[in-house]
Request: fold
Amino acid sequence: MAADGWPPGTRLRHNRAVKLVTAIVHSEDAGTLVDALLEKEFRATRLQSSGGFLKQGNATILVGVEDNQVDAVLEIVSANCHARRQFVNPMPPIMEPGEFYMPYPVEVEVGGATVFVLPVERFERL
Ligand code: 2BA
Reply:
């Protein structure tokens, strides 16, 4: 509960510095993450997204919070998002006739979360 009686995230006041926490997470972690945020009364938006490299679905979670709540949000993200090892099939090279290419999958580590904390110039609920 905030000092003024409002739970965190319930109400962003217009005269406070606001940040947008943007977390790109594994699809399998997104549901639990949103639930954990809501449990602490942070409002969140889940967007379906996909990574440019793996071209697989992931989730982008947006959380608008006051400056002093950013660390609490990051702790929740960190506690609910886990790194995974995934395999990707590299693009085959351009081949000359008669050349032979044996594709084999390459292992990469994805996540737990890729997080950007952005300053918000203005926040309104209209
Ligand atoms: P993807 O682009 O599908 O990347 C998945 C994982 O593949 C990355 O995990 C990284 O381990 C590897 N990877 C990405 N690009 C690579 C490259 N050029 N060479 C070798 N390995 C590469 P994470 O770094 O944990 O990123 C997870 C997802 O977060 C990314 O999915 C992407 O959707 C997002 N992301 C990561 N960095 C970003 C950035 N700077 N800007 C925007 N989105 C980003």
Notes: The mean pLDDT is 88.
